[in-house]
């Protein structure tokens, strides 16, 4: 596969969504978090039950706050943007790391496949994360779990 044909402005907008994702979790900002997802969004991370719908996804910031005591920081890197099947959607692949900023310890890391949908602005329609390294957080995925696809 060659380089992405997605225009730079769209890529920047999608990067902004990922930055807001991290900021909302790290600073326990439920209002910001809610704006990131479509109403029918799906959220799945290795070691967690899949959450269907924005209402269920709204529990995630509270869970992160309780587990990390406000010390966890999320970082996306290696962000790749490609067109999805629908003209209103983009497929984003990225590596997510979570560190405890108080101790410096790694908490978790995951390969993520994120389907972004254009509504009034870009929103996450589907988030799938598969753990790739053992940390204090998520267990390492089995070989079968490592094959994550967005449909």
TrEMBL record:
**Which InterPro entries does its entry note?**
NTF2-like_dom_sf, SnoaL-like
Q: Which Pfam families match?
A: SnoaL_4
Q: Where is the SnoaL-like domain?
A: 12-126
Superkingdom of the source species: Bacteria
Q: Write out the transmembrane intervals.
A: none
- What name does the UniProt record give this protein? SnoaL-like domain-containing protein
Identify the species of origin. Answer: Sphingomonas spermidinifaciens
């Amino acid at each position: 596969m060659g380089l992405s044909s997605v225009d730079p402005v769209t890529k920047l907008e999608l990067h902004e969504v990922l930055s807001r994702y991290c900021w909302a979790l790290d600073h326990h900002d439920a209002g910001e978090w809610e704006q990131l997802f479509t109403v029918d969004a799906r959220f799945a991370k290795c070691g967690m039950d899949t959450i269907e719908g924005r209402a269920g996804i709204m529990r995630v910031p509270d869970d992160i706050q309780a587990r990390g005591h406000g010390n966890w920081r999320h970082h996306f890197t290696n962000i790749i943007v490609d067109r999805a099947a629908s003209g209103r959607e983009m497929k984003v692949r990225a590596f997510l790391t979570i560190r405890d900023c108080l101790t410096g310890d790694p908490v978790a890391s995951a390969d993520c496949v994120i389907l972004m949908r254009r509504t009034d602005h870009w929103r996450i329609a589907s988030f799938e994360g598969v753990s790739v390294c053992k940390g204090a957080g998520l267990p390492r995925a089995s070989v079968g779990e490592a094959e994550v696809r967005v449909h």
